[in-house]
Specification:
Order of helices and strands: EHEEHE
Distance between the termini: 10 Å
Number of strands: 4
Shape: globular
Number of domains: 1
Helix content: 10-25%
Radius of gyration: 12 Å
Number of helices: 2
Structural class: alpha+beta
Strand order of the largest sheet: 2-3-1-4
Length: 74
């Protein structure tokens, strides 16, 4: 599970990048589902991979706008 907290003042930029570039996921990291809080500045995502190091690749594509908390689930 991933908790994304959008950096102060970056909410619009996050949604703009998503609209123009998509999730920017590396091959092998799959998006399953997501939910946002009411203010749409925190996103909870379920992701799946057999290669946890792919999270580092994905985070590097967004960490200018988002702070990430990645919680492994069994």
């Amino acid at each position: 599970m991933v908790i994304e907290r959008f950096k102060e003042g970056c909410c619009d930029a996050v949604y703009q990048r998503f609209e123009t570039s998509g999730r920017l996921l590396p091959e092998g990291l799959s998006y399953l589902n997501s939910w946002t809080n009411r203010d749409r500045n925190i996103c909870y995502q379920l992701m799946e991979t057999r290669q946890p190091d792919l999270f580092d690749v994905w985070v590097s594509r967004w960490n200018d706008l988002v702070d990430f908390e990645i919680i492994p689930l069994d």
